[in-house]
Amino acid sequence: MRATTAVIPAAGLGTRFLPATKAVPKELLPIVDTPGLQLIVDECVGAGFEHVVVVTSRAKPAIEQYFAPRLDLVAALRAAGRDEVAERVARIGHDARISFAYQDETKGLGHAVGCARAAVGDQPFAVLLPDELLADSSLLAQMADLSATTGGSVVGLKRVPRDELHRYGVIDPAGPITADGVVPVRTMVEKPRNEDAPSDLILIGRYLLTPDVFDCIDRVQPGAGGEIQLTDALCMQAAAGPFHGVLSDVGRHDTGNPLGWLQAVLDRALDDPALGGPLRAWLAARG
Ligand code: UTP
To answer: Is any ligand 1 atom within 6 A of the Cβ of residue 55?
Structure first.
């Protein structure tokens, strides 16, 4: 069965963007004019997903507000003849069914995914970290197809230079990579020392998981700061059954830190037909 539900964990504190994230959730920071979270929903829809579960916290009411209808705003825009933006606003939350799960204590990514259990049910599902912006839906679609074929979990991968490996989750491959970029995974290690890393293939925040992962999450021992790591649950899955990675070279931005977020904004603005020219001219003049 191909997965139709996707989970977006968005309950974190976003401390790297304080003080902005005191009131505005990190996941709603704009990439030019569109919240990063919307771009992630678009990626889900593009890969054929029908239901998106956003894991949020009651301290971040703006996330639910973003998906709620604003009939007054849509009517005002239409009355002003601004039909295109009216359509965009009216469509928010309608390309897929959006539902919410709550994580009111930030006990880590594994715990956040566990909070979506009732909303997901007993079926395979995707997890997308909203800090990772990918240029298109192709990786997620390939992962969903592969998981439907193998019956096991699948993780999205990227190759990075060896001196950066200590910042990421790194896989230990159990065999060679196919021409389609598919690789069997033996296990994973979080933030290894560069010299100890079992490969140069890192997890990039895209997961296609079979529902037994929820029982694995329940069995994970909390680590530093009481956090339940998703990677620990994935290691249990990889030890028990088929588990694959898909290597992708799709364009990617890490918007979880201010520099990465700025790069994502500039990239999108430079590609924008209206903004690209004036922005390039301004950057050149500024030196
Ligand atoms: P991050 O660790 O990048 O987000 O988690 P953060 O903790 O909010 O950010 P900093 O490090 O304090 O700046 C990746 C994603 O997982 C979610 C976050 O909202 C983010 O989208 N997350 C993380 C949760 O939903 N719950 C958690 O307990 C931790």
So the answer is: yes
3-state secondary structure of 222: coil
Closest residue CA from atom 22 of ligand 1: 12
Please choose from 109, 115, 261 the residue to mutate so as to test ligand 1's pocket, defined by most ligand atoms within 8 A of CB. Answer: 109
Whether the per-residue pLDDT at 104 is higher than 90: the answer is: no
Which atom in ligand 1 lies closest to the alpha carbon of residue 105?
Answer: 28
Question: What would the pLDDT profile of 139-171 be if each residue is shown by its tens digit?
Answer: 999 999 999 999 999 999 999 999 999 999 999
Q: Is 169 in the pocket of ligand 1 (CB under 6 A)?
A: no
Task: Establish if 283 belongs to a structural domain.
Answer: no
**Domain enclosing residue 16, as ranges:** 5-256
Cβ–Cβ < 8 Å for 233, 217: yes
Task: Dump pLDDT digits (tens) for 22-72.
Answer: 999 999 999 999 999 999 999 999 999 999 999 999 999 999 999 999 999
Query: What pTM did the predictor assign?
Result: 0.96
Within 10 Å of residue 219's Cβ, how many Cβ atoms?
10
Check which CATH number belongs to the domain holding 165 and give it. Answer: 3.90.550.10
Does residue 280 lie in a domain region?
no
How far apart are the CA of 274 and the centre of ligand 1, in A? 33
Query: Rounded to an integer, what distance in angstroms lies between the CA atom of residue 208 and that of residue 10?
Result: 17
